[in-house]
Specification:
Elements (H helix, E strand, L loop, with lengths): L1 H16 L4 H5 L8 E4 L5 H4 L12 E6 L3 H13 L4 E4 L7 H4 L4 E5 L6 E4 L4 E5 L4 H10 L2 E2 L10 H5 L8 H4 L6 E7 L5 E5 L4 H10 L5 E8 L1 E2 L5 E9 L4 H9 L9 E10 L4 E10 L3 H12 L7 E6 H9 L10 E7 L4 H17 L6 E6 L3 H4 L15 E7 L7 H17 L19 H5 L4 H11 L14
Parallel strand pairs: 2-4, 3-4
Antiparallel strand pairs: 1-2, 5-6, 6-10, 7-11, 8-9, 8-10, 12-14, 12-15, 13-14, 13-17, 16-18, 17-18
Helix pairs in contact: 9-17, 10-13, 13-15
The chain binds flavin-adenine dinucleotide and 2-acetamido-2-deoxy-beta-D-glucopyranose (2 copies).
Length: about 475
């Protein structure tokens, strides 16, 4: 009984400690340009990172927008000393449920860490910890260079890298984290540390797969390459009648074993709210000249799609196409995912049926299912033990992209997503589910996300580098 009372008293004093005067605590130790705002202040929305989705969003008592590395060092030290939980973010795309459990924290907005430097002579790109994939596109193209990225312009380059980084150039260059050469970061002591293959190699191993757990990366240097096909890409879209769905899935299945590195296949299921019809589409992307792409396009044409659009675009234009709608804010956006080794046409048929029924009974639901089939050669060329990233055998990423605005739909959307996820897991070609961290929903067992073979070392390194668990509340490696 007494014990219980002490616990309550301890909680009460914590609650007072968790209501600090942010201006008083931080202002004397950060640069004058650093902005600070509490939630109730008018400029809070400018100081805090924007938030992409309204679904299970983290909440913040205050936000701080540092300008220099020394500012971040001070912020981490002061927050740690005063037991103030914090989360460093850029555009707030973290979408999983754990991230949403971060409540009443201090938001550290990385928006000022937006420098981009291309070194074409040594084929290196150095970016600040708050640079988006969109922001590197032009400087790279101007230098005639490229790097593998995620597909949408709004996503943080470092944020995506530290969880993997998958995208359409993956077949040619591999995961984004495989192009990482070194990082500079603020650790749990507030010290600046470097991590690379030769400096703090264990830390470098850990941040390439579970990076949000070990510190705040202020800058990162990547390997870049000469542009493929002068920066031009072919994108072809083929809508199919639902009656021809099976041949579309079988076409994708025929590339399960081997897919040429420049080729990307993205079959998808969505809904046209005007015509009230399911849209079934196969998108083909090819990083090369039309003559090389033609045999693959001919294969799809032979399956009698409803129509076809074939375009040659720049890599930047391709990103703009992928970002349409995806980068929009204000939706109750959340995702589920399964990594697969095999395409199973029966599972696809079941998904089509289940989604059709769902679309018809939930007219305001605007979600989709897409399978991102990228080449694996470059990813497999890196040995598994190189990085903490665990899932190099995944051939394709199934993405259930839930978009809606009405919270009343939550339960039904969860039911649909979980039902589909279970089906895809059963026919994935893997014994146990393999879940790509950056697409995770947040309800998966950690072994399925970080890999049972990687977690013990990750947790040992966590004890060493961040024993107080200051970092990684949104992407925890232990609960
Ligand atoms: C529209 C959209 C498209 C996407 N497309 C792809 C895709 O094509 N390929 C892909 O792989 N993923 C994709 N993702 C997933 C994306 O990789 C993850 O959501 C990623 O976590 C986003 O990082 P962020 O910095 O944009 O988001 P934030 O919410 O700002 O950050 C996410 C997490 O990373 C941590 N973090 C961010 N920056 C740093 C830093 N500098 N140092 C330390 N920790 C940091 C944050 O603390 C947080 O835990 C997409 C997401 C969205 C919303
Ligand atoms: C839906 O169909 C209408 C009419 O055919 C068309 O104009 C519109 O572009 C379609 N929308 C989508 C998202 O495909
Ligand atoms: C569905 O989302 C697309 C973008 O992905 C958007 O263009 C369209 O207006 C949305 N439709 C509805 C009914 O919300």
């Amino acid at each position: 009984m007494l014990n219980r009372l002490f616990q309550v008293l301890a909680l009460a004093s914590l609650a007072t400690a968790a209501d600090p005067n942010y201006e008083q605590l931080f202002r004397p130790f950060v640069s004058p340009e650093t902005e600070i705002a509490t939630f109730s202040e008018a400029d809070f929305a400018e100081v805090a990172s924007p938030r992409w989705s309204t679904w299970h969003a983290p909440t913040f008592q205050a936000a701080i927008k540092p300008v220099y590395e020394a500012d971040i060092q001070s912020i981490v030290r002061i927050a740690a000393r005063n037991h103030i939980p914090f989360l460093a973010t850029l555009n707030g795309h973290g979408g999983n449920d754990n991230y949403g459990r971060v409540q009443n924290a201090l938001n550290i907005n990385l928006g000022h860490f937006n420098s981009v430097t291309v070194d074409p002579v040594h084929n290196k790109l150095t970016v600040g910890g708050g640079v988006t994939f969109g922001e590197i596109a032009e400087p790279l193209a101007k230098a005639g260079k490229e790097i593998q990225t995620g597909n949408a312009v709004c996503v943080g380059m470092v944020g995506a890298t530290i969880g993997g980084g998958i995208g359409t150039l993956q077949g040619i260059h591999g995961l984004v984290l495989d192009s990482l050469l070194s990082v500079t970061m603020v650790d749990a002591k507030g010290d600046m540390v470097i991590a690379s293959k030769t400096v703090n190699p264990d830390l470098f191993w850990a941040i390439r797969g579970a990076g949000a757990n070990f510190g705040i990366i202020t800058s990162a240097t990547y390997q870049i390459h000469d542009q493929t096909n002068d920066g031009n890409v072919i994108i072809a879209n083929y809508p199919f009648p639902v009656s021809a769905s099976r041949s579309a899935w079988e076409f994708v299945q025929s590339y399960d074993e081997n897919i040429p590195a420049p080729l990307v296949l993205i079959p998808s299921i969505r809904y046209n709210h005007t015509t009230e019809e399911v849209i079934l589409q196969v998108s083909v992307i090819y990083y090369g000249p039309m003559a090389d792409a033609q045999p693959y396009l001919d294969q799809v044409e032979a399956l009698n799609p409803i129509s076809s659009t074939v375009e040659t675009v720049t890599q930047q234009e391709l990103k703009a196409i992928f970002s349409e709608g995806a980068c929009d804010r204000g939706n109750r956006h959340n995702v589920y995912t399964v990594g697969i080794k095999k395409t199973d046409p029966d599972t696809m048929e079941e998904a089509l049926q289940e989604m059709t029924e769902f679309f018809e009974t939930h007219p305001t639901y605007n979600g989709s299912l897409a399978i991102q089939r990228y080449g694996s050669q470059a990813m497999l060329a890196v040995p598994d033990e190189e990085t903490s990233y665990p899932w190099r055998e995944i051939n394709a990423y199934v993405l259930f992209d839930n978009i809606y605005t009405d919270p009343a739909l939550d339960a039904d959307v969860d039911d649909l997503s979980r039902s589909l996820r279970t089906k895809f897991e059963a026919t994935s070609g893997f014994k146990d589910p393999q879940i790509y961290l950056n697409y995770a929903h947040g309800d998966e067992p950690l072994n399925q996300v970080y890999g049972a073979s990687k977690l013990p070392k990750l947790r040992a390194l966590k004890k060493l580098w961040d024993p107080q668990h200051l970092f990684g509340a949104g992407y925890p490696i232990d609960y």
